[in-house]
Amino acid sequence: LECASDIGRREITLFANGTVRLREGEVLQDTFEPSELGASWQAPGLTTHLYLGELEPAELETYLRRLRHENLAETEERYGGVVAGEWVEHCSLELALPGRPARRFDFGRYDSLDLALSRVVAIIDELPDHVQREEGAVRGIPGDYQPAVGDVLERRDGNLFELVLFTSDGLGVELQGVDQPVSFIVSFDDLRTDFVRLVERP
User: Fold this and answer.
1) Distance CA 68, CA 103 (A)
2) How many whole angstroms separate alpha carbon 84 and alpha carbon 70?
3) What mean pLDDT, rounded, does the chain reach?
């Protein structure tokens, strides 16, 4: 799964041997192949980090079983990208499960995906929990975070957003840009994976 905007990029890869690779940082124009865990390649204004982890055989099989369980036969492979802007991530998911044809799905991070694809994306978003990061690196908002109207949150790309209301179905929140004239709805799961810290609470 690769998600990138004009500001940042995040790539999650699960290899057949159980290796999990996470790349994240600013968008790079050149190929980046660091050789050391957690190494950083720097050019003027650009920084990308690579992190690796390993799944135990039983963990790998559990992930594969969960992914195989989702029926994507009727799922569209391309979505329109309802929300646009330099900060909005466009995602590409390449799914190659053993014994099944490879599939590719293209969508915006805030598109309304069908249930099966949204579950697959949620499963893949769990994989960074298995990588090794530098001590003190931010991994996201803690799981015990309780959202409140007026909270100002920092997203992974550094932009700030204020929580303005809860959705009527109780499954997410509406966020409004502090420095950008944009608002969008995000699920509670994406809130905890896409945002890294609570900046201010009224």
Assistant:
1) 13
2) 28
3) 80
Q: For residue 138, count other CB atoms closer than 10 A to its CB.
A: 10
pLDDT at 34: 39
- Check residue 87 and give its pLDDT: 61
What is the token pair recorded at 72? 């994507």
Q: What are 148's two structure tokens?
A: 């409140």
Whether the CB-CB separation of 156 and 12 falls below 8 Å is answered with no
74/169 Cα distance (integer angstroms):
26
Q: What is the reported pTM?
A: 0.60
CA distance 141 to 139: 7
And the tokens for 193? 């994976």
22 contacts 40 by C-beta, under 8 angstroms: no
Between the alpha carbon of residue 6 and those of residues 74, 84, 89, 126, 152, the distances in Å are 31, 11, 8, 24, 22
Tell me how far apart the alpha carbons of residues 42 and 95 are, in angstroms, rounded to a whole number: 30
SS3 content of the chain, % helix, strand, coil (to 5): 15, 35, 50
Instruction: Give Cα 192 distance to the centre of its chain.
Output: 10
pLDDT band at 108 (very low <50, low <70, confident <90, very high): confident
66: enclosing H helix or E strand = helix 57-69
Contact criterion met (CB below 8 Å) for 22 and 130: no
Residue type for position 122: A
Residue range 132-142: average pLDDT?
Answer: 56
